[in-house]
Amino acid sequence: MEIKLDHIGRRFNKEWIFRNVDYRFVSGQKYAVLGPNGSGKSTLLSILLGNLTPSEGELKYSDPDTPVEQVYQHLSFAGPYLDLVEEFTLTETINFHFQFKNYAQGLDAKALIGILGLEKAKDKALKHFSSGMKQRTKLALACCADTPILILDEPTSNLDEQGVAWYHELMSRFAGNRITVIGSNQAHEYDFCDHRLSITDYK
Ligand SMILES: Nc1ncnc2c1ncn2[C@@H]1O[C@H](COP(=O)(O)OP(=O)(O)OP(=O)(O)O)[C@@H](O)[C@H]1O
To answer: Which of 2, 7, 21, 37 has the fewest Cβ atoms within 10 Å of its own Cβ atom?
Structure first.
């Protein structure tokens, strides 16, 4: 899969958040989208996700050619503004998610719960999960789906030191053969990325 941004810009009302983003994302590579708070990282990720249209420029998904309305089938996402259904147990959450996506090779619900290290909480409702447990769940759901595009915004928010180490293991196992894009302003979240795109270069 390839994502091509051709002179993309986005504004809200009269304020341009970024302009002239000319960039290619290709399979097998990991990209960090960087910038201070409020610079436009999440806005750019929302455009990549097909959730927000650019105000100018063109966005193309190719190899295979995919219209933006269908790209959701090919991508996985985790971010602070993605909500889980609090009434569901962990097992129900996983089963629900994987009605829409396939598991990455060799995985099933049991294996995913093992990756999370949450065997004891598998029948617990998410409303009783800690913020770190919820964040791990979001990351594991995204990473363990068989999608060619993986987009993570602020992936270690709410994770402690052990959680950050777990995130690094997850990335080394599941970020390999796809386009991985990390929106971040913390080095430990993106230090393994091959490329860095700084939003401040496009103001
Ligand atoms: N729907 C919207 N309407 C108006 N302005 C918006 C909207 N969404 C975002 N913005 C503005 O766009 C700018 C970029 O916001 P964005 O959330 O993309 O930044 P960010 O780099 O992800 O920030 P953070 O690191 O704090 O998460 C901000 O000034 C924000 O107020």
So the answer is: 37
Q: Encode pLDDT of 84-131 as tens digits.
A: 999 999 999 999 999 999 999 999 999 999 999 999 999 999 999 999
- For the CA of 46, the closest atom of ligand 1 is 18
Cα gap 36→85, rounded to integer Å: 30
End-to-end C-alpha distance for the chain, whole angstroms:
28
DSSP per residue over 152-190, as a string? EESTTTT--HHHHHHHHHHHHHHSTTSEEEEEES-HHHH
Please give the Cα distance from 139 to 155 (Å, whole number).
7
Please check whether residue 37 is in contact with residue 184, taking contact to mean a CB–CB distance below 8 angstroms: no
